[in-house]
Every structure is written in C-alpha cells, then in structure tokens.
Amino acid sequence: MLKNKFTNLIALGAGISLLASCATTSNVKKDSSTPSDSIIEIEETTTEKVRKEPKPIAVQNTSNQKEKAFKELLSNIDLKVISSPSQKKTIYPGQDIGTPYTLQVTNKGEPVTDFDITVSYPVSRSNDSISYATTQLKTNAEGKITFKPEPSSIAVKDKVTFYPSPVSSTPAIVQAAYDVAVSAPYVIKSNYTKWPGGILYVYDFNESGKPTTNNFTILQNLRNAGINAGNSPVSDTSYFNKSINDLYKACVDMTFGEIKNQASFLIMGSVKYAEPAVETSEGVTCTLVCEVTCVDMKNCNLLYKTSVTESATDKTKWNAEQKAKKVLADKVSEAIIYGM
After folding, report:
1. Is 258 helix (H, G, I), strand (E, B) or coil?
2. Are the C-beta atoms of residues 284 and 316 closer than 8 Å to each other?
3. Span of 30-44, 106-120, 155-169, 321-335 with lowest mean pLDDT
4. What ranges in the chain are assigned the alpha helix state H?
C-alpha cells in the first residue's frame, strides 16, 4: 500500500513539470498596438521574452545630391576670360595693374547668374616658392565677374586662375572644378630691373669643374629685356670658393664704393655639369645646372636665389652642351627679371 502511494506521487510530479514546460513555449505573442512592418522581433534564447526594436530609417544624402548636380552643371558650363591687363604695359610691384580681369560664365550659351567663382592669384614668394590667395565672387545678371587685385608687393610671372567654387571638399569634386578652370597672365617685373641695372659675376664651368669664361648669354638676355647689365669689376674666379658677401665687399672696395650708385643688384652664379656627359646610340646628352644668387647692391641683402637644371642631346658633346646652355640661360634670365 505504501509503495503504491509513492508511485502516484512521482507520476503527479512529472505531470506538473510537463504543464510548466508547455506554458513556457507558448509565452511569445505580438503587441497588436505596434504596426508589424516597422518592428524587428528578436527572440532571446535564454528567456521567454521577445524584444522589439524600430527598423532603421533611410536618410536621404543631400550632400551627394549637391555633388551630383554640381558635376552635371560642370559638364555644360563654359568659363572664358574676356578681358585682362595689357601685356604690352610693364607693371612693377606697387603699381595698379590697369584693366581688371573679367570672366564670363555660360551654360549652353546662356549666362549663368549668381554662380560662385573662386579666384586664385599670387600674393607672396620666397625664391621660387609662391603663395596664393583666393577670393570668391558671384556672377552678375550677365554671367560675369570682374576682379582687380591690389597692387602686387612682389615681382612674379604667373597667372590668375578662375574656377567654379566646389560644393564640397570631396577630392573628386575639387578636381572636377579644377578641370574646367581658366587662367590669364599675371606679370609683375622686378623694380631692380629699372635703371641703373646691375652687375653679373656668372661663369661657365667645364666638365672638370673649373671656371672658364663669363656666361655671355644670360648677360645678353638681360640687356635684350631692356636692363642695363654688365660684368662685375671683379674677375678673379677664386671668389667661387668664397661667399657672395666676400664678392660684394670686393666689388665695393675695388670701385671705392661707387658701384653702390652705379648698380642696383649683383648676381653671382655658375653653369656647371650636373653629371658627366652620357653617350648613347642617339648621341651625347649633357645635363647642366645653373645656380644664381641676387643681392641688393646697396646693402648685400638677399633678393633671390634659384637653381635650374637642363639636359640636351645632340650628335656631338659640344652641340649638346651649347643647346643646354641656351635653354638654361633663357630660363634663368626670365627667373631673375621676375624673381628679384
């Protein structure tokens, strides 16, 4: 009798456990108050609950829309400089440039009004490193902008550049704006090229590294540009082993100081082989380097320094050397005129 009672208790316990298990698995249900298409149901395996989270909302990228519209516009617009300062008139630092720059912007031949244009122009320099300023202007009812920079404080031969102002800093957008840019010359001649001009201590060197003769081409180029230029009173080539301050002092001492009134600048320079000549089946290649330093003849203050390298190939070494020297002289002469 006791054994039967114990067996019945075990059966009763098993039945209760089975009912509890059934109740657990049927505990998942939806909340009818929340729309079924705006939620995500996440079932947690360690509990009987279902967590409901809002679905992510798709946000429209307005930045991409602006960039797309900007690129489409760039494919249709046309930028054209219709007036700029006269290149026949010499402009020096501190002088008004005269005629302003005028830019016309059209879209399939029609003026584009109220359109942002960025203007970039040179404002300062350190030898051959030039810094630029930018300003932003809007086109008028005729699709035009007019730009006139303040008188320049530097001598420079460069350009003023106009391009659509990018709608973002995305590299592809910035590049797309640059790709339709237009420019016009911006030329300011050095004040030091005015009378009384200056003196040169510039020599050609042979392939062995020894000075030979004065470089006549640079001297002649400066004269052809209307600059009163002559060779230095000091001809001793040993000054290439000294500083330009030593050369300056020697020029002053040799002329008893009169050179300060007779010249406004002193140029010390050399034209040397950058490397030995190379002979191939196509001929001989000569690579030369010209280095010059310009100082104020009044006080020896540094005005300008540059280094230019040029290569030329010809059937003979002499011809190749002369070609390289000519190109170097042309480049360096222009650098001096618009760099001092």
Report:
1. coil
2. yes
3. 30-44
4. 2-25, 62-74, 171-179, 216-224, 244-254, 259-262, 317-337
